[in-house]
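Supplementary notes for students who missed Thursday's class. We covered one full example, reproduced here. Read the sequence, then the structure, then the short commentary at the end.
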Amino acid sequence: MDGITHASDRRPGISKAAISASGIHLNSRIVIEDDFLSCRSSMRRFRRGEIIAGAGVLVDMFARVHSGVVSASTMLPDGREFIVEIIAKSGLIGELEVLRRQTLNLEYRAGSNCELHFFEGRLLRDMYATDPCFREKVFSRALARVSELEQRIIANAASTLQARLASTLLRLSAVYGKDSANSGNELTISQNDLAATLPASREKVNQCLRRLRECKIIDGGQGRIRILNRKALEACANGAFSVK
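Structure (token representation):
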């Protein structure tokens, strides 16, 4: 992630030029709490909606989310954005691409105001080459990520939009809950991003959100959703309860 120029930091990172040239459970990523905390890093802050790294960029740095959330997305064949996962505190960005020396497959964007720590790719490659336990952790996390994405695809194919939305809200609740400052019941996500996460049209998602609000299952607006009745939301996700 070389050559970034950011308003608050001009240390090495992802360049705006490179960006223009070319968004899941936290358990599905390589989540490393302490392995890199003693290593030298460059810190950068991003405002909600800012691009962190674009797809198709060859990088030799990876980043650890220190606070806030980051969305990883791609474009569907019909031109719609699909947010593949939302990465919260302690999650890594670009780690697999650095190990493989490949370009980024996804676009990474700040889902909220966030702070990221950037590390040189050689640190990850050196640990992978010399530490069998770390190598096993990387491998198991990669397999878990693939498995979780497969489960999401299967569930989306067999579920109603209402069930998919409820399931997504619960999944995001678990992601946001990784941050000690958030109970997991407060989600900061725009309706556009929520629609892209499912994926579905914004209009249909808004209809489902309105029904959930009318039933006092959720509350909020202006990019914020508050879960009021978790049990009812779980019943919606399981298809045991439907709001009309």
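Commentary. Residues 132-158 form the longest helix (27 residues). The first strand starts at residue 42 and ends at 46. If anything here is unclear, bring it to office hours.
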